[in-house]
Specification:
The complex is a heterodimer. By secondary structure, chain A is α/β, with parallel strands linked by helices. Chain A folds into two domains: about 230 residues, P-loop containing nucleotide triphosphate hydrolases (Rossmann fold, 3-Layer(aba) Sandwich); about 110 residues, no CATH class. Chain A has 13 helices and twelve strands. In chain A, the strands form two sheets. Chain A has an eight-stranded mixed sheet, with helices on both faces. In chain A, a hairpin with a 2-residue loop joins β4 and β5. Chain B is mainly α. Chain B is about 70% helix and about 0% strand. Chain B contains 15 helices and no strands. Chain B is globular, with a radius of gyration of 27 Å. The chains are: A alpha/beta, B mainly alpha. Chains A and B meet through α1, α3, α4, α5 and α7 of A and α1, α2, α10 and α11 of B.
Chain lengths: ~375, ~350
């Protein structure tokens, strides 16, 4: 059997790969990235009345060939960070270094060359494919934009790509509407793969799919990683998915990374109270284990990113919060007793084996009171 | 499992060429949205009727010189000897070999209507094409770039739409003299903004789509995004608007000609035939009734065709088409019909 990678690079006409960097240099280095969206009011005389703090000083590194999982609940800035890294949004401040080049300040024209190294897979397999264009031309887009191949050559490459991602190459001339959600996501994967990038930013690539199809796409992504030596930044809010695909995991809350560690380390000994709550909220397929686990319920809602809390962003909901938490923002550091790569931003990290008390006691008490009291009293009490 | 090519790596070369052969042998062609719309249009009787009327007018226009030659009647030269009766009055329909009668200088009304159809259709279609292209380009640019470019272009469209166009046409015609190109220019100038405005609105929503973001992340430039990603999504609305703009342009042209600021005499147009008929009263009814009728049939034809095209392009009307297919009134062949009904099974009640 021919080596799949050499066959792929000769067959699909990939560029000669760039000169290898020193091993210490990660493929992607994100330094202190800040993204704020201005909120303005007024039609003619616009004045800024505030800003959304979407990403607040995120730093992370993704070594070549690895997968960094990025988790956090809806609205925590995961997708904004992805779009900052791929320069779909300009940064407010900070640097994005891709393969040794700072791409955060490049002009559109200069950026074009670097885009070949970095592709993106989108969340919505329906919205990310133009309904009026044939699948073949959609997948061939990157080849056309970067003048890699034309005419029959492009068609051949596209059909090979379709086969690589498990699509029927005969469907070259079909429209996206003629495919299922999973097949459409395969189209998105083929498009991202066309230029043989080194980094693929996956923005919740499976959260819009059926569970059975999710597994297929995840397996496909893993296979492709092995085959083409890809590096992934994998964004998701499904912890099981992240646990499965990632080498390292970063947890985001309100635009900041609160904890980052190797996947096994993070899932076995989470230190940040938010991580603990997040992990306890994920569903466990094993009923015996599920019964024995302790569920941490957080009180309240995520604060508004327009007006984030002072000090530690999590202190408004943290069951372990102390006065210092609302004053001083904790730095992302290695906590006592942790492995080298395990960093947590918390003044009072959760000790291994510690049972964290969430708000569930109060919630349960309130529910019990409500159930026990006669209807009128309960309503009065509520009022 | 469908992942087999992954497990084996890419196929070796011979196999790849086999695949290519297989593909070319039975490449599967997707049904484009326009193809589907056309298939639905075929089941629409009103569309057939409207298209028939338009084709009739087009034939009349194309064969105008033949009609002239066959009857031996010139569209331009007055013919007082055989075209009027012994009192110098115009002949009624059917008299003296004039099917639709003559006007008061003895010219054959049928021949003049046929020549008039040339002007009407030419002006109607050409000015619509110019207006559609200009409106689409300006609308896409305004909607895509936004900001001050949009502010300037949107205000420009509002200005054009609120202009007293008949007044401007009269002023231009009196300055440059009435002519065909001026007429087309004036009509196109006053029509593009209507299309531009709608295209701008559509573009505003299209540019926020995720596939536009995807194209941008691939490194596509603004021009490519506008023409490759956004434009194909505008084809349907522009076709509908264009079809509905043609009758407006034809009436516009007739109005200008009626006022004497259009193409102008001696060229026969439906508008100046109506102007000539003014004052003839009810006695010589064929002066005005035939040009009016052709004008009515043509504009009605384009309007009804436009409505049918809009229905055919609008997925929300699928239910109507599905019911029509079910009742067997369709022109689609059996296999097609069956397949489509299977596809639409859920959409149909019961």
């Amino acid at each position: 059997m021919p080596d799949p990678r050499s066959a792929a690079s000769s067959g699909v006409g990939a560029e000669p790969s760039p000169a290898p960097r020193p091993a210490a240099e990660p493929l992607l280095r994100v330094e202190n990235v800040v993204k704020r969206f201005p909120i303005s009011r007024g039609i003619i005389f616009k004045r800024q009345i505030g800003q959304v703090h979407a990403v607040e000083g995120v730093s992370l590194e993704v070594p070549r060939g690895e997968t960094l999982g990025l988790v956090g609940e809806t609205g925590c800035g995961k997708s904004t960070l992805a779009r900052c890294i791929t320069r779909l949004y300009p940064l407010t401040s900070g640097r994005v270094v891709l393969d040794g080049t700072d791409i955060s300040t490049l002009s559109r024209r200069q950026l074009r060359r670097h885009r070949r190294q970095m592709q993106m897979i989108f969340q919505d397999p329906y919205g990310s494919l133009n309904p009026r264009r044939r699948v073949g031309s959609i997948i061939g887009d990157p080849l056309a934009i970067h003048h890699v191949a034309d005419g029959a050559g492009r068609k051949r490459q596209v059909q090979e790509l379709m086969e690589v991602v498990g699509l029927n190459p005969e469907h070259y001339n079909r429209f996206p509407s003629e495919f299922s959600g999973g097949q459409r996501q395969r189209i998105g994967v083929a498009r991202a793969l066309a230029l043989r990038p080194s980094l693929i930013v996956c923005d919740e690539p499976v959260s819009a799919l059926d569970v059975s199809v999710q597994a297929q796409i995840i397996n496909l992504l893993e296979d492709l990683q092995g085959e083409f030596g890809l590096t992934y930044l994998f964004i998701a809010h499904d912890l099981a998915v992240v646990e499965h695909v990632s080498d390292r995991v970063a947890v985001m809350y309100l635009g900041k990374i609160v904890e980052m560690a190797a996947v096994r380390d993070l899932f076995s000994s989470p230190r940040h109270p938010y991580t603990v709550a997040l992990l306890s909220a994920s569903m466990i397929a094993d009923p015996d284990r599920a019964r024995s686990t302790h569920r941490v319920v957080l009180a309240g809602d995520v604060p508004s990113p327009i007006n984030p809390p002072s000090g530690c962003l999590f202190h408004t909901r943290c069951p372990k919060a102390q006065p210092i938490c609302s004053v001083e923002a904790p730095a992302l550091t290695v906590q006592a007793g942790d492995l080298a790569g395990h960093v947590t931003a918390c003044h009072f990290p959760v000790a291994p084996g510690e049972q964290m008390r969430g708000a569930e006691a109060e919630v349960r008490q309130a529910a019990a009171d409500f159930a026990a009291a006669p209807l009128g009293e309960a309503v009065e009490g509520a009022g | 499992m469908s992942l087999t090519p992954l497990e084996t790596g890419l196929p070796p070369l011979e196999e790849a060429s086999e695949v290519a052969e297989l593909v070319s042998a039975r490449a599967i062609e997707g049904r484009s949205p326009l193809w589907l719309a056309l298939a639905r249009l075929r089941t629409d009787r009103m569309a057939f009727l409207a298209a028939g009327a338009i084709i009739l007018m087009a034939l009349l226009a194309i064969f105008a010189p033949l009609i002239s030659a066959a009857t031996g009647h010139d569209p331009l030269n007055p013919n007082l000897l055989t075209g009027t009766n012994s009192f110098g009055q115009p002949l009624g329909p059917g008299q003296g070999g004039y099917i639709l009668g003559t006007d008061n200088v003895g010219r054959d009304i049928l021949v003049r209507i046929a020549y008039g159809a040339r002007i009407s259709l030419l002006v109607g279609v050409l000015s619509t094409v110019i207006a559609s292209v200009a409106g689409t380009i300006i609308g896409v640019i305004a909607g895509y770039y936004g900001g001050w470019i949009d502010a300037v272009l949107a205000r420009l469209m509002d200005t054009v739409l609120s202009f007293p166009y008949v007044l401007l046409a009269i002023v231009l015609a009196s300055v440059y003299g009435p002519s065909l190109s001026l007429t087309i220019g004036v009509i196109a100038f006053f029509s593009w903004a209507a299309i531009g405005r709608i295209v701008r609105g559509q573009t505003l929503s299209l540019r926020e789509k995720e596939y536009v973001e995807a194209a941008r992340s691939l490194g596509a430039g603004n021009l490519r995004i506008m023409f490759v990603e956004i434009l194909p999504n505008l084809v349907a609305p522009v076709i509908v608007l264009g079809t509905l703009l043609v009758p407006t342009a034809i009436v516009f042209e007739a109005t200008l000609d009626y006022l004497g600021v259009g193409v102008g005499p001696p060229t026969p147009t439906w508008g100046n035939m109506l102007a000539d008929a003014q004052g003839s009263g009810f006695q010589d009814w064929w002066f005005w009734i035939f040009p009016s009728l052709t004008l009515l049939i043509t504009t009605l034809g384009f309007n009804l065709l436009g409505d049918s095209v809009r229905d055919a392009l609008d997925p929300r009307t699928e239910r109507i088409f599905a019911m029509r297919r079910k009742s067997g009134r369709g022109g689609a062949d059996g296999a097609d019909q069956e397949a489509e009904e299977r596809l639409l099974g859920q959409a149909e009640p019961g």
